[in-house]
Amino acid sequence: MSLTGQSITIVGAGPTGTLLAILLQRRGLHVSLYEARPDPRDAGPASGRSINLALADRGLHALGRAGVLDKIQASLMPMRGRLVHHPDGTSLLQPYGQRPSEINHSVSRHGLNQVLVEIAAALPRVTIHFEHRLEDLDITAGVATIRDLKKGLVRRVTIRPLIATDGAGSQVRRRLSALGLITAREEDLDHGYKELSIPACPGGVALKSDALHIWPRGNYMLIALPNTDGSFTATLFLPNHGDLSFESLNSPQAVDRFLSDHFADVRPLMPNCLQEFFDHPTGFLGTVYADSWHRAGLVALVGDAAHAIVPFHGQGMNCCFEDCLQFDEGVARHSSWEALFREFESIRKPNTDAIAAMALENYLEMRERVADAKFQLQQSLALELERRHPERFIPRYSMVMFHHEIPYQVARERGLVQSELLNELTTHTTTLSDVDWELAAREIERRLTPLS
């Protein structure tokens, strides 16, 4: 029996749920989408939680396959590299790659969600119910209890099947875990984040608009991503507790002193930062791990509901969109939901585990290593080795961000080998001219198989 023409319930109408609905509708499925929050077309973003997203090759590929990329293109801000701001006021641009196409894009999560909802809502086989909250899940009966928050009514929805795209705090995942049907854990990072803003500068922009700005300071950092109106969305990442932490910054004077001392060049560009610091919530950062993503062919977890990761590799949304594409492709290969769910998890879980690990590793890189001279030398060396050996050596960052055809697991495995090689080649080297290029060529030939 084909899955085409069947009905499916999706809980969670964020970017992942809406993109999945668009893809499955194109397969001929009938999709009912439930979302606890108001329609994003009618409401603004949640205050202090509208962190910009980085859209890279994997996400662009998925949006293109869904036929919606042209609707989103105008809202994307290209970022060609990291602009690192040092404490002494100097800065250095570190390009993401060496090709014109190797760029990332800053996009508003709320704005992206608005566009995807608008597209999904106009499709003939998609129905979206906003302000409808999942309250219970009965796997035995195959029924979900959903409350209409506007009318106060409760409806029982048959789940054959139900797909949970309800994010890192997934109620579906937590319910499955509470019932003992899966084992899941949420590992919080001991750092949090606070969203601040850099308004558009009259007559121009306050900062270079085609870069991700980073102020690395060892155990904490500030970043800023460009918006289409000339403003920047800034995010402060800081320990939650300790001598210098969100806990210790408990007065406007303390916050102003901290920002002025450690981010002197950007503090004047954030006139509202003190009010924002106390008005906006401190966001939590963490990783979700689940031993199983599905149950009995009735329920499956997709996206952050299954494997939320920290944001430091800019891959959270891209990974979720790649999930959607993999899930959609599985519909054409299977005649039962259970077989599809099983294959989906077997393909995706090794890769989502890999990007979760790389995202955690990238936090140290962003807040500390990008300012280190040895790291900068190794980054330059990696790009040069890619120029000389493009079929074998691609920097790990480039594999993750610019090559959707390379699975995350492969990128991580090859990245470990390449990191060892870079360390060896720069042990007694301070400039590229000192590198032993013959040794590099031999070791690349020996350790790295061709990618194509």
Count of beta strands: 19
Give the helix/strand class.
alpha/beta
Radius of gyration, whole Å: 23 Å
Order the strands across the largest sheet as they lie in space.
6-5-14-15-16-13-17
- Report the sheet with the most strands, covering strand number, pairing sense and barrel closure: 7 strands, mixed
Quickly count the helices.
14
Instruction: Give the overall shape.
Output: globular
What fraction, in percent, of the residue positions are helical?
25-40%
Question: Under the CATH scheme, which architecture of the domain at 7-46 and 53-74 and 109-186 and 285-362 would be assigned?
Answer: 3-Layer(bba) Sandwich
The amount of beta strand, in percent, is 15-25%
Mean pLDDT: 95
Whole-Å distance between the termini?
Answer: 37 Å
Low-confidence stretches: none
CATH superfamily of the domain at 7-46 and 53-74 and 109-186 and 285-362: FAD/NAD(P)-binding domain
